[in-house]
Specification:
Helix 4 runs antiparallel to helix 10 and helix 5 (about 130-140) runs parallel beside helix 8. The protein has a seven-stranded mixed β-sheet with strand order 8-9-10-7-11-12-13. Helix content is about 30%, strand content about 25%. It has helices at about 15-25, 55-60, 80-85, 100-115, 130-140, 160, 180, 185-195, 300-310, 320-335, and strands spanning about 5-10, 30-35, 50-55, 70, 90-95, 120, 145-155, 200-205, 220-225, 230-235, 245-255, 255-260, 265-275, 285-290, 295. By secondary structure, it is of the alpha/beta class.
Length: about 350
């Protein structure tokens, strides 16, 4: 019989790790038993009693039991740290991306299966009201055949984000991997989650104003094809001045036209579908605010809520490790199709 109470350890106490810790502390049926971070950290008053460890090894030697490990470290460490915690018989929640290669992701999945443990990925944009609405009307056949999709993601990431005191891993191929992994994998996942598998047709990249800051390009144009033959374009950049500008998806379909827009795909801007009356959706959660920059919607409570349901054997909306690996496979294929 499944338990209804679970103990958590958060690995990595940076911006997103703090979000995970706060979410666990606020949740029913969850207890934060430890935090692991290789850097000296100052915990807020509400977490002062939580033990802090500087390595996974020192946590393992403490004999503190955890049921779930939340992996919130730099991208290039996600898979290996998930494997370390699965070997401790922990379930794992892995921040996006699941890894920087599908090969790494596969090792996590295979070990989780051997250990009979769960591996989840964080794709919190799936819980935004416009995203859930889009998936529902597509599954109900309201849109009919999809002809064209255009995704525009135009964000700001500048020296305030990449400077050393904010973490030297940002902008490196080894630990960051690239803007598609760190900033825009959410939006590839959204198209995959709603519309199904994607074939990469070609991609072009350019580094406009980050040449001294990052090891990869800051902007790109990517072309895909859906299984039904519909065409998809992804246009992205982190070269926007000062602040994030837009995250949008426009859909031209057999029965109508839809655009979800705003800074974070947080509102339906246009809906004209035959024999369909649009009704206002609940307001989306605000973006995660990290001071000098903002990220996608603060939907981590929904992620944890559904993980807890799944661990208890209840029906839940989760992002599986297989889905997380699929997004990594697509990104790898995009980079292989450079300038094609």
């Amino acid at each position: 019989m499944a338990s209804d109470y679970f103990k958590f350890v958060v690995i990595g106490y940076g911006h997103i790790g703090k979000r995970h810790a706060d979410t666990i502390m606020a949740a029913k049926h969850a207890e934060l038993v430890a935090i692991i971070d290789s850097n000296p950290i100052e915990l807020p008053q509400g977490l002062k009693k939580i033990p802090v460890f500087t390595s996974i090894e020192s946590f393992q030697n403490s004999n503190i039991h955890a049921d779930v490990a939340n992996i919130c470290t730099p991208n290039g460490l996600h898979s290996q740290q998930a494997i370390a915690m699965l070997n401790e018989d922990c379930n794992v929640i892995i921040e996006k991306p699941m890894g920087l290669s599908a090969h790494e992701c596969r090792k996590v999945i295979d070990l989780a299966n051997r250990k009979s443990k769960k591996a989840y990925c964080v794709m919190q944009n799936r819980y935004s009201p416009p995203a859930k609405w889009l998936k529902s009307i597509h599954e109900e056949g309201k849109l009919g055949e999809i002809h064209l999709l255009q995704i525009n993601c135009f964000w700001n990431r500048d020296e305030r984000y990449y400077k050393k005191e904010n973490g030297s891993w940002r902008g490196t191929l080894e630990l960051d991997g690239g803007t598609l992994y760190t900033q825009f994998s959410h939006f590839i996942d959204l198209v995959y989650w709603v519309f199904g598998d994607l074939e990469v047709l070609g991609a072009d990249f350019h580094n406009f104003n980050h040449k001294e800051l990052i090891d990869f390009e800051d902007s790109g144009l990517v072309r895909f094809k859906l299984d039904n033959g519909g065409l998809v374009s992804l246009n992205y950049s982190t070269s926007v001045n000062r602040s994030n500008f837009e995250s949008s998806i426009s859909i031209i379909a057999e029965h109508g036209t839809v655009k979800i827009g705003g800074q974070y795909m947080n509102k339906v801007e246009y809906c004209d579908i035959a024999n369909y009356e649009f009704r206002e959706l609940p307001v989306s959660n605000p973006p995660n605010d990290y001071g000098t920059y903002k990220g996608s919607a603060n939907n981590h409570p929904f992620v944890l809520e559904n993980v807890l349901k799944d661990l208890k054997g209840e029906e839940a909306d989760i992002t599986t490790a297989e889905e997380g690996m699929k997004i990594v496979e697509l990104i790898e294929e995009i980079y292989k199709r450079r300038n094609s």
